[in-house]
Amino acid sequence: MPLHLACARSSLDVIKILVGTDDDTYVDHEMDGALFQTACFRKDDERSGVLTYLLETTEAIGRQSSDRWGSNIHTACLVADLNTVKSLLKRGADINSEDKTGQRPIHNALFRTRDFVKLLREEGRERGIELFLEDRMHRNAFHFAVGNGRLDLVKYIIEERPELATQGDCDGWTPLFWALRECLHWDTESSERSAIIKELKARGADVTIPDRGKVLDRVWTPYYVATYYGLPANIIELLDPPSQLVYETKKASLCDDSSFCDICLIGIVGLYYICIECSSFLVCFKCYGSRDIVHLEHRLAVTNEGEEYVSNEEESVDNDTDDADEALLSSSSEEGIGMGDDTWEADSSGDDRESVVSGGIEKVAL
């Protein structure tokens, strides 16, 4: 659709010409989502102006939604700024709307910062917003918060509901399992992961407990999840590595830097699946067992069978890089250069985001 394409990458002047004359102004364009959602994924200097214009000129913007992203406020909580979220709330956005997985806007806010979560709770107090509702995969607020990677948000949740630290999802994965997954998108962090794991353990999280054996027909423990994601030794040590392995596991291969699971919104590693009918719909190894909850009308096929793990050559290069990084950190520490955990982290804020629309929004690196 011309207007969706324009909102993805054209100037505000072009968009102003098309608005009001193009029939697709309010249409959910299959994989693009609603018009406002397409604009949210821009990375350039025009994004703020385009969003402001759409907010001011689209009467029903607070009530728009799409099959892919849920409501406009779902998308804003995931990738836009606080002011955009506030503007949607003022325009009647449904703060309790659900997307295809049963997630509400506050679940997406949990990928961001405590400020987003507090805003929705404060604004939604009179509308009956509930932070601790589960989605259709029985993930609670804690499952989302630990994946965010920010210790302050984890403590914000755990101080209200400490019992959630040991509650499993539909596969028996407790928040500890989810804390060991690399999100790679949506402004999430990883520099405080060790502190989060220690906090979970202090609250009763069991590092040896297995899941229900439904994910890839394997029995997973936190240790196996951490090794699958190739997490560093200081994280592995916190998980009480078993003296005898039930099965050998290796670091899973990364699909690519831009792809994410359309169910859990986390970066894809290892085995993943693609919808035969709509090729931009991807599902990770963890969510494949939950596919019927969200995508009944399409068939999924595995895409990289036989390439689940990184090759020995790639693993050797990764290990050499890790050793070099550790040496640099050690050298910097000895010289008194401030390189703490909070600063030695690749930027995942979304500045490398690319959105290309051509009959459908392609995967975006956020």
Automatic annotation (TrEMBL):
Residues 307-366 are annotated as: Disordered. Keywords: ANK repeat, Repeat. Pfam families: Ank_2. It comes from the Eukaryota. InterPro entries: Ankyrin_rpt, Ankyrin_rpt-contain_sf. Transmembrane segments: none annotated. ANK repeats lie at residues 68-100. Residues 307-326 have a biased composition (Acidic residues). This is Ankyrin. It comes from Mytilinidion resinicola.
